[in-house]
Amino acid sequence: MKRLYKNKIIEELIEDLNDVSKSRLLIKKYMDINLIKILKRRCNELEAASDFEFIVRIHFGGCESLKGNFAGFYSLTLSGNIRLIIRPNAINLEPETLRLCKEYYFEGVVDYHDKKKKTNWIIP
Q1: Which residue ranges form the domains of the chain, and what is each CATH number?
Q2: CA–CA distance, 72 with 70 (Å, rounded to integer)
């Protein structure tokens, strides 16, 4: 699937991460190397997915649909409390629509289960 970005900061961080030969590892400012490796793997796996419905159906990366302020978004597990937040580029979340969805927005990385019940964005 094609990756789109919520903002230019995220685009710069992830594109730098994907350019292995020239990477400056800008993302190290935000997360440790173990999380970076998992994030890179998740990005590669998402790129290889045929459509968004496939990710939801096979529960890829612990894929969960989110509620409340995050309705319409999905999370993928990077570690215990750390989640990659993505959003399908689709008009609705019906399975038929998600099957046609070939793009997703990279929204960020978050400590979604922060003990203070506050969303703690690691990559905004």
Answers
A1: 2-123 (3.30.2310.20)
A2: 6
CA 66 to mean position of chain CA atoms? 13
Query: How far apart, in whole angstroms, are the C-alpha atoms of residue 63 and residue 77?
Result: 7
Distances 123 to 38, 87, 90, 94, 119 between C-alpha atoms, Å:
14, 15, 23, 28, 12
Nearest CA to 108 out of 61, 43, 18, 64 is that of 43
| CA-to-CA dists, residue 76 to 19, 22, 23, 97, angstroms | 22, 27, 24, 20
Residue type, 91: I
pLDDT by residue for the chain (124 residues), tens only, comes to 999 999 999 999 898 887 766 777 788 888 888 998 899 999 999 999 999 999 999 998 899 999 988 899 999 999 988 999 999 999 999 999 999 999 999 999 998 665 666 778 888 7
